[in-house]
Amino acid sequence: MRTEPISLLALTTTRGSTLVASSLGQTLHHCYAIVPEKLDFVPTGWISACYRLTCGDGTSAFLKLQPLDGFQPLAASAPDFYLPLTRQLATRGILPHIAYPLPTVDGALWTAWEGWRVILYNHVPGRVVGHAGMTDAVVRQLAELLARLHGATTALLLRAPLAETFELACEAPLRAALTVLAHQGAEATAGQRALRTLLVPRRRSTASPVSAHLVRLRLLQAQARAAAHPFVVCHADLHGENLMLDAAGRLYILDWEGAILAPVEQDMIFFAGEPTFDTAFRPAYEALAGPLKLDAALLDFYWLRRGLDDVADWVLRIMAGDGSTARDEADLVEIADCLAGLADS
Prior knowledge:
Elements: E1 5-6, E2 11-12, E3 18-19, H1 21-32, E4 36-42, E5 49-55, E6 60-67, H2 79-91, E7 111-113, E8 116-122, E9 127-128, H3 136-151, H4 171-183, H5 190-199, H6 209-226, E10 232-234, E11 243-245, E12 251-253, E13 260-262, H7 276-289, H8 296-320, H9 325-344
Helix pairs in contact: 3-7, 4-8, 5-9, 6-8, 8-9
């Protein structure tokens, strides 16, 4: 990935597409009434291309470019839901420390440019917490923010609400990929051959690890649908890479692209089993929201579905056959690590 500062004169995204800088600059100027001066590439995100935008008056914003067509993550939410949601959370003071979209001069929360969705966010200065930075203090702040988010559900004016259906978007593409891999011949790429070795058993009597996980996920899905759970607004992707601390130690929640109305368990899967959950998270959450009762089967469902959604995204990218060898190798490592983690859990 590129990490050196780049300007609007020559902007190249992580997807390898060269953007016509002057055209992008004109779009930003016309739609947001700003004078874009410099873009610094931010090596984050998988599908999006992200940049810190510096304007002529010295102010900064965070620019995100999302492809309007092509591959989309299975767990992605809908912009018509999460963009108005995050702006409302910020402007109403419910969660003032989040990344939220800035409106265009016409009041829209995104604009289009040459096949890309252009979203301009407030710039959040600080450092990413990361997986190793979940200290007790961070966990307590996160619990308080989540209690406020979940508790505000009925007070929010939600446009185009996106609600949990407990569907398994990962199942069809994973089963289709297993079938194709089992019958691929010389036309397979190196990444696809390695994927076949990883996912397709040599003996027909042995089940693929993916197939075994899908069987268990179906059972958990039935349990989830049979139980009655109240729905709240969930971020749905709360791990350390989507959290940021500013210089004053305030915690910001970033990347709301997976936001959805769902049971609270959806927001607990990355840390419910950690030692700090009972010592730091639960007391802080319950102080604002009351007793927190979690359904273990629902936690299992969300954990397994999220893992298989991620596996499916990597598998689909390798199966597309248009990636570099290095990218395929990186995706294979991620798949193996994810499946190992699911087996251990």
